[in-house]
Amino acid sequence: MKRSEINKALRDMEEMAKACGFALPPFCHFTPEEWKKTGHDYDEIRDNMLGWDITDFGMGDFDKVGFSLITLRNGNVNMEKYTKPYAEKLLYIKEGQSAAMHFHWTKMEDIINRGGGNVLIRVYESTSDGEFADTDVTVHSDGREYKVAAGTQVKLCPGESITIYPGLYHDFELEPGTGPVLLGEVSMCNDDNGDNRFYLPAGRFPEIEEDEPPYRLLCNEYPAAE
C-alpha cells in the first residue's frame, strides 16, 4: 500500500469514530514526531502493539480485502508483566471491503456494531482438519441463542453483537448500500502471531510504499524509547 492510502484510511477512521461519538485515547493522537520523544512510560503501547493498524491480509487489495483498526487495550501472552486477560479493538470497514475467513484457536470475542451501516458475519464450524463443517452453527447474539445453517451470514445492525467462540470460522463484509461501519471487538487477550487460523493463506501487515510522510505511526512502527 502507498503511505498516502494508509494516511487516508486512518483519517477516515478518525472521522467515523467521531461521528459515532467514540472518543479515542490520547496515544491515538500522537504524531510521529511526538512518538520520538516518548519514554519507557509508554512501553505497554510498544510491547503490546496498541494503536493504529492496517491489514490487507497480504493480498495487496486493501479496497476489497482489508480494513483499518485500533487496538485500544491488550495483554501479552509472551510477557508476564502484562497480566490483562482481555483486549479491545475498533475496526473501520468501508463498503466493498471484507475480512478473510479465519478462526481463533484460543480467543473468544464479541464483535459489536458500534455504528454506521449493517455488517454481515458469515459463520462455519470447523472440522479437525481445518475445513468447513456442514453442520448448523449455534449463534449467540445479545442474550439470544439460535441456530443457523453452515455458511449463513448473520446481520448485525448498529448496537447488535455476536459472540465468536474458538474454532468458529468467520468472515465479514458490509450489507451493500448501508454505508461504512465502526465495529467493536471485545475479547480475551489477543495474539495475532499464534492464534489465527486462516482458511486460505494470508498475511498480516502490508508492504508500504513511502510516497508521503506518515500521518500516524502504525503499531509496528514505534521507535524505541531513548
In terms of DSSP E residues, the strand content is 25-35%
Strand pairing plus helix content: what structural class?
Answer: mainly beta
The total count of strands amounts to 13
- Across the major sheet, the strand order is 1-2-3-12-5-10
Question: What is the helix tally?
Answer: 3
* Order of H and E elements: HHHEEEEEEEEEEEEE
Distance between the termini: 30 Å
Largest pleated sheet: 6 strands, antiparallel
Name the average pLDDT. 96
User: What does the radius of gyration come to?
Assistant: 17 Å
Uncertain regions spanning at least 5 consecutive residues: none
Can you give the helix content as a percent range? 10-25%
Q: Which term fits the overall shape?
A: globular
Short description:
The chain is mostly beta strands and 226 residues long. The chain contains three helices and 13 strands.
List the helices and strands and how they pair.
Layout: H1 3-19, H2 32-35, H3 43-48, E1 51-55, E2 67-73, E3 86-93, E4 98-104, E5 109-116, E6 119-125, E7 137-141, E8 144-148, E9 153-156, E10 161-164, E11 168-174, E12 181-188, E13 196-198
Antiparallel strand pairs: 1-2, 2-3, 3-12, 4-11, 4-13, 5-10, 5-12, 6-9, 6-11, 7-8
Explain how this protein is built.
By secondary structure, the chain is mostly beta strands. It has 3 helices and 13 strands. It has helices spanning 3-19, 32-35, 43-48, and strands spanning 51-55, 67-73, 86-93, 98-104, 109-116, 119-125, 137-141, 144-148, 153-156, 161-164, 168-174, 181-188, 196-198. The radius of gyration is 17 Å and the shape is globular. The two termini are 30 Å apart. The model has no long low-confidence stretch (mean pLDDT 96).
